[in-house]
């Protein structure tokens, strides 16, 4: 059996882990990164998350036939996977081992490779970056159905579903619903939550719901999923609707998108004395340390927001700890935005109107329809609504909701403004290039 001693061991090829591995190796820290699958170099984002889904969204908008889009997306992820592997494998001081890691003690792990070889690794510092996997709820008939997909398995399906039922109307559910409807599937979204997009303000949720429905998507909230009945040509999803009616929805594909769960299967963190919470996530302090001081947890697995850019920011916290002044901490993150890549995309940052009201803040609300921005006419994407929540006395931007073309780009500019004290009047009275989506801010003035 091969034995390795290393300064740093990273378990999982996620955004934080791979960025940290490269950084450590470049700073003369001997680093081993263990990834369980040769199909996951680069982690969830590259292989089964952000990149393939957004590639499919863009190609749906460009009206590329579905099978061609899946093929092009596979080529893209294969390219990025190899690029991610090479970036670490060719770096002096960094070693990538492909196999499943399992703790033996607080400093020792074993790795079982794909050819069942065992490698023992002893490390001074260990960074857990093992991510999450889809959570599947208990619904009678779900396990027995051959038409059940997760976000991962549906990406591999080159045949376009004719009738797609999406269980869960969150990030993944809505992104898939929007893109499959554009490819030509008949899409129904089922969600147990009584309200559509319950965290968002009513006006935004209504606007988004209307646009999705105009694209042919049927959305049911407040449903109770009773059973999935297998059939020869189609499965049937039996539900009780919010108004008490019963419905039987036919589907040749059923996507389950009801959240993601911590992935520590086989990792045996207990052998290292690392604690997990009731949901399997690994609790960390403000500097991402677990209860065992030389073991850190980065990315989704620490129970923080599940975004690639948060995983990257976790890397920055570690970098500052090991090489800087330890000045960066989880609680320093102010105004973390998000973008849902429906068409047009929806992005949000800061407070919603209802949250500002609940805090008793004096607010001014500014709203414009997306269609007043000339760029939306050029893009032929005139749907949407832009809304600013502004402090009535200080003119500071408290929050912004953007449901419009390029919202995922604009939201980053707003973050820069908010975190640097740029007032709403200043933001809306700047010079912006024309015809761009950024000049939407001028239309608020
Ligand atoms: C369909 C989908 C779309 C998404 N879209 C977006 C988006 O547009 N924007 C965005 O910001 N976020 C998006 N996300 C979320 C984003 O992908 C995740 O938040 C991010 O990838 C998490 O990265 P991570 O660093 O936690 O680790 P991950 O990238 O999840 O990597 C964990 C790695 O650890 C490996 N591993 C696990 N256990 C072991 C073990 N015992 N031994 C060895 N290796 C192991 C796994 O194989 C995996 O490669 C999306 C997610 C999904 C599922
Ligand atoms: N654009 C992005 O940044 C992006 C895209 C995709 C995923 N993600 C990340 O991945 C995470 C997981 O996404 P997700 O969509 O799986 O989770 P989610 O938490 O966003 O949404 C889950 C939805 O499923 C519903 N639900 C839960 N149980 C249900 C049941 N039994 N039946 C019907 N509906 C049920 C919930 O009410 C909720 O609306 C997100 O939280 C996000 O952090 C991000």
From TrEMBL:
Residues 336-442 form the Pyridine nucleotide-disulphide oxidoreductase dimerisation domain. Keywords: Disulfide bond, FAD, Flavoprotein, NADP, Oxidoreductase, Redox-active center. InterPro entries: FAD/NAD-bd_sf (IPR036188), FAD/NAD-binding_dom (IPR023753), FAD/NAD-linked_Rdtase_dimer_sf (IPR016156), Pyr_nuc-diS_OxRdtase (IPR001100), Pyr_nucl-diS_OxRdtase_dimer (IPR004099), Pyr_OxRdtase_I_AS (IPR012999). Its cofactor is FAD. Residues 7-309 form the FAD/NAD(P)-binding domain. It comes from the Bacteria. PANTHER family: MERCURIC REDUCTASE, PYRIDINE NUCLEOTIDE-DISULFIDE OXIDOREDUCTASE RCLA-RELATED. Belongs to the class-I pyridine nucleotide-disulfide oxidoreductase family. This is FAD-dependent oxidoreductase.
């Amino acid at each position: 059996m091969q034995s390795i001693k290393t300064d740093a061991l990273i378990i999982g090829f996620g955004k934080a882990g791979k960025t940290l591995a490269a950084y450590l190796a470049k700073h003369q820290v001997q680093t081993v990164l263990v990834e369980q699958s040769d199909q996951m170099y680069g982690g969830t984002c590259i292989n089964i998350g952000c990149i393939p889904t957004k590639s499919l969204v863009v190609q749906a908008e460009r009206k590329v036939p579905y099978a061609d889009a899946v093929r092009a997306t596979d080529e893209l992820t294969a390219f990025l996977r190899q690029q991610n592997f090479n970036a670490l494998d060719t770096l002096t001081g960094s070693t990538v081992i492909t196999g499943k890691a399992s703790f033996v003690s607080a400093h020792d792990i074993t790795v079982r490779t794909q050819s069942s070889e065992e490698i023992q690794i002893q490390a001074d510092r260990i960074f857990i970056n093992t991510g999450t996997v889809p959570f599947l709820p208990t619904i009678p008939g779900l396990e027995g159905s051959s038409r059940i997909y997760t976000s991962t398995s549906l990406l591999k399906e080159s045949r376009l579903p004719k009738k797609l039922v999406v269980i869960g109307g969150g990030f993944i559910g809505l992104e898939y619903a929007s893109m499959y409807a554009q490819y030509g599937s008949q899409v129904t979204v089922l969600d147990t939550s009584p309200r559509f997009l319950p965290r968002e303000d009513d006006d935004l949720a209504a606007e988004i719901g209307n646009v999705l429905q105009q694209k042919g998507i049927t959305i049911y909230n407040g449903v109770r999923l009773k059973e999935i009945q297998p059939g020869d040509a189609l499965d049937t999803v039996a539900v009780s609707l919010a108004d008490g009616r019963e419905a039987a929805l036919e589907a040749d594909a059923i996507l389950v998108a009801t959240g993601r769960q911590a992935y520590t299967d086989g990792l045996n963190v207990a052998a290292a004395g690392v604690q997990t919470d009731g949901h399997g996530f690994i609790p960390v302090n403000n500097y991402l340390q677990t209860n065992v001081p030389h073991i850190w947890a980065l990315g989704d697995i620490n129970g923080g927001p599940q975004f690639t850019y948060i995983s990257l920011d976790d890397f920055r916290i570690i970098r500052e700890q090991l090489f800087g002044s330890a000045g960066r901490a989880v609680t320093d993150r102010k105004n973390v935005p998000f973008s849902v890549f429906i068409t047009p995309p929806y992005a949000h940052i800061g407070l919603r109107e209802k949250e500002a009201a609940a805090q008793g803040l004096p607010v001014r609300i500014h709203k414009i329809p997306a269609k007043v921005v000339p760029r939306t006419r050029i893009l032929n994407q005139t749907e949407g609504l832009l809304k600013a929540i502004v402090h009535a006395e200080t003119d500071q931007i408290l929050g912004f909701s953007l449901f419009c073309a390029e919202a995922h780009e604009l939201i980053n500019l707003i973050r820069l403004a908010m975190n640097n004290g740029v007032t709403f009047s200043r933001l809306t009275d700047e010079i912006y290039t024309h015809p761009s989506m950024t000049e939407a801010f001028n239309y608020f003035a």
